[in-house]
Amino acid sequence: MRILGGLVLGCLFLPLLAAAADAASLDLTAAVVVVPAQSPPRQQRAVKLLLDEVEARSRVRWTVAHTWPEDARQAVIVVGQRAQLAEFSAALPENEIRGNDRPEGYLLRTLQRSDRTASIAVVGNDERGVLFGVGRLLRELRMRPGQVSLPGDMRHDTAPAHAVRGHQLGYRPKTNSYDAWDLDQWERYIADLAVFGSNMIELIPPRSDDDADSPHFPRPPLEMMAGMSRICDELGLDVWIWYPAMDEDYSTDAAIARSVEEWGAVLKHLPRVDAIFVPSGDPGHTRPRELMRLLEAQTAQLVKLHPGAEMWVTVQSFTGEWFAEMLELLRAEPTWLTGIGFGPQTRITVQQLREQLPRRYPIRLYPDITHSMRCQYPVLDWDVAFARTEAREVINPRPRAEAAIFAQTIDYSIGFGTYSEGCNDDVNKIVWSLKGWDPAYEVEQILEDYGRYFLGEGVAPPQAFLQLEDNWRNAAHAEQTIQDTLKTWQAIERSAPPALRRNWRLLQPLYRAYYDAYVARRAAYERDREKEVRRVLADVPPGQSLATLDRAEQHLALAEAFPVAGDLRTRVFQLAEALFQSIRMQLSVKLYDAIEVGRGANLDTVDVPLNNRNWLRRELKAIRALTDESERRARIDELVHWDSPPAGSFYDDLGVPNRQPHVVFPKVDHEPGYRDPLIWPTTGFENDPTWRISWCTHLDTLYEQPLRMRYEELDPQAAYRVRVVYGGDNDEVQVRLSTEHPARPIHAWIDKPRPLSPVEFDVPHEATAEGHLELLFESPPGRGGPGRGPQVAEVWLLKQ
């Protein structure tokens, strides 16, 4: 794995890199690394990281010395804490290395130049400062076989803006790749995150909301957990544990004692633990007062086993009643509790949470960066074709969106530990890591550093990653943008040598680019086939309804009989195999033993229908069974005009952004960088192969937030009916519909109709008497869990 991830990068031989180094660059090929003789172990580990990564990318192994070389022409890289560098004062004057004195900060500076030789100082304020200074140097270096250089003079005097910057790395079956990694791969990945400024890793204990075993595990979970804790400790990174309270009942002293014993057996095995982070939900279902009793007991044990360790808890998934109870408990300010986590399924925004919490408790963000739908921060306005195929845990570089989410939430916290369930979100981790160090980092610069460090100088420009994100801002059948993205990545693929083509950080975006392009080709093709079906059904000759149904069914079969873009599909499967061989990424249940299709195994959904052929076949079969010709013609007419009601009536497809003109969205002074689902109605998805495509998308609202629609220029004299399709993934949530001004019921609380079908209701005449109508869709207040609302798929307002 290390060869594939590091040394092979030195094989790059691109025309751009074949030219001689720029005259302003500093040649560090023959540099010596000077370190204090009494460097502590973690500092030595940082120096080893520097040597190993340079060698992996350039085949150059720098030597280490404890004295300044006598040859003034030799380039020197001095690495150490400021307080340790006094012994080199003759060559390294104190005023030359004076910088900030903040924790984890560093000074990275070019001290002198003579032709293309130089002295470079990596001066840390503490052990971590040395590590992060080394990481910054590695990101700045230009490395190719036999040569190492640095572009021009450099001075970075910096320290992190946020105290907590890390990522959850769970060794468990639910992840799409992590469960197959052994300690060497974990060490590599954790070091990569440290290079980009991460200072903590969050582990998951053997018992969580997961299977106890995986067919991919190379080691038992507790043994792996201990090994990962050791790796973090050697690098000097904090170790957090995401520790869910999994028992059904903690209401008795005996139950708490059993839990303390269970957790203690895990904590004793770990070389380092700095904090426990307990989700109150997802998973978790313990009443707040019982949960707090449990955590107080766990804290007493924790600080004995790991002195100084902290206890944190989230306020996730609570009902309204339990949320209020939790806030009341927190306002009593228990001294054993360190802070509060803000994660998915929290009822209020992080700003509102900050306003309601005692100031003594800091907030740590727990942002979901790994999922694309049915999650805390879904892809906005995602096309249903992508949602049906690529699904929830797809390879998902979203640099602009993640930067916007960071900007809108970070000021209310001391930092973050991201929620991740695999390496599909690798780019997003790096965006959060560097933004956490310095929020002023531009997305393009982050991507430039990412591409240079992991793939090589000039291989994958920032725009290539941004194009992948832009693919999802378009309708899938708008092929040109998506095909242009594929061309960009195909050009990168062609220019890469064989060794680089085995690098998973190249294979991932290639897989996404080919997959997107295949979906786009199919979406356009199958959309056209359905247009032909509608054209046939729109012209039924007298007495020819059955023959027309025959012709329509023939057109429906074309998408399956004559599929398109077989070359793209083949390449998708080849790249899936390459990713499995490279990092054991499990993109299929059938081929690679992924835990389930919804956990990143989107190779198994690559051919899901992207038009309504399954639903249409069922409808056409029902029409064929009718014995009356006029009835058959009437039903056919309903199909043809499903989404185009007669004049004076209106139709909204609420899952499609440009087909929801009557939905009321919040009014804001300026468009936010990311529309928070706690405030804005958001497109949601449910993939049922028997449903119409329009039923597979809907608008979601969360918790007590209603969904509003407004109609203007109605006929005050006319009567109206509303027809609605209640879709979504949560059949248990009831829904109510009323008019808002004046407040009139249209229907009381009802269960969502299943099997799914439209339902109709009369609109009170007084609600439209002034020529306009305001509809209010609601779900029951006080619900916990994900809090998804009425989930409305389609709405017609029909003039009678």
Secondary-structure blueprint of this entry?
Elements (H helix, E strand, L loop, with lengths): L1 H4 L9 H4 L7 E2 L4 E3 L6 H18 L4 E3 L10 E6 L24 E9 L2 E8 L2 H14 L1 E3 L2 E4 L4 E4 L5 E5 L14 H13 L4 E4 L17 H15 L2 E5 L10 H15 L7 E4 L9 H18 L4 E5 L5 H12 L7 E4 L7 H7 L6 E3 L18 H6 L9 H11 L5 E4 L7 H12 L5 H12 L7 H10 L7 H17 L8 H34 L7 H17 L4 H18 L5 H4 L20 H12 L4 H12 L9 E4 L28 E4 L11 E4 L6 E5 L8 E7 L8 E5 L4 E7 L8 E4 L2 H4 L4 E6 L13 E8 L1
Parallel strand pairs: 2-3, 2-4, 4-6, 10-11, 10-17, 11-12, 12-13, 13-14, 14-15, 15-16, 16-17
Antiparallel strand pairs: 1-8, 5-6, 5-9, 7-8, 18-27, 19-20, 21-26, 22-25, 22-27, 23-24, 23-26
Helix pairs in contact: 3-4, 5-6, 7-8, 12-13, 13-14, 15-16, 16-17, 17-18, 17-19, 18-21
* Major sheet strand order: 10-11-12-13-14-15-16-17
Largest sheet: 8 strands, parallel, barrel
Low-confidence runs (pLDDT<50, min 5 residues)?
1-23
Q: Gyration radius, to the nearest Å?
A: 30 Å
The average pLDDT score comes to: 94
- The geometry reads as globular
- What percent of residues adopt helix (DSSP H or I)? 25-40%
List the total number of helices.
23
User: What separation lies between the terminal Cα atoms?
Assistant: 68 Å
What fraction of the residues are assigned to beta strands by DSSP?
Answer: 15-25%
Structural class: alpha/beta
The tally of strands reads: 27
